[in-house]
Amino acid sequence: MTSDRLETAERIDNRHPGAPKSGQGTVPWAIKGELILNCNCTVFCPCVVSLGKHAPTEGYCQAWAGVRIDEGHYGNEDLSGLNVGLILEIPGLMARGNWKAAAYIDERASNDAYNGLIDIFSGKARGTTGLFKVLVSEFLGAERAPVIFETEGKTRRLIVGKQIHGEVVPVGGADSDQDIVVTNTEYWMGPDITVATATKGRVRAFGRVWDFDGRSAEICQIDWKGPR
Questions:
Q1: Pick from 18, 52, 60, 158: CA 20 to 30 A from residue 93's CA?
Q2: pTM for the complete prediction?
């Protein structure tokens, strides 16, 4: 871990000396928007319907994800309009944990929004993403970055500097105008997951060099909140 990332990690629990730590999960928060994800699975990710009980198609999971926040807050701090990029690495069954994760926080975020998003995506804020605190054994760090989340027709695109260049498109069904959607799931991200594929999936970050063009992808409308 670089000195900058170590400093960020130390700040997570030492931002407000003498005050209750946000890691206690007492701050009300909410996020509505869209999430896209591309992983190394060769076909649609088994984790969506097996809820992590079935191994990824390659036996392990490597993934990047992007979150567009249409409406959101962390306490009194507005998160609306911000984007977040994520990197996830899971050694086997999702439910067994030992994940590694990293976050790129929109450089437009205020200091309070930045800190709040770190708490949300590290699991410290509890609620919907609280499982990260249980499943992630190593949080690689968080960095400010230009995080761009674009939608062009049905194409979704995530660009995080030179670190993540991703593009996903929905998979059409028998009616090519209708996307294939897995509905009524118990998946943590949301009940309805649009099946997608990556037309570009390049990661050059935190020592990882991944190329997942043509691999599994997901699109999900999110409505997350906490701390309960």
A1: 158
A2: 0.87
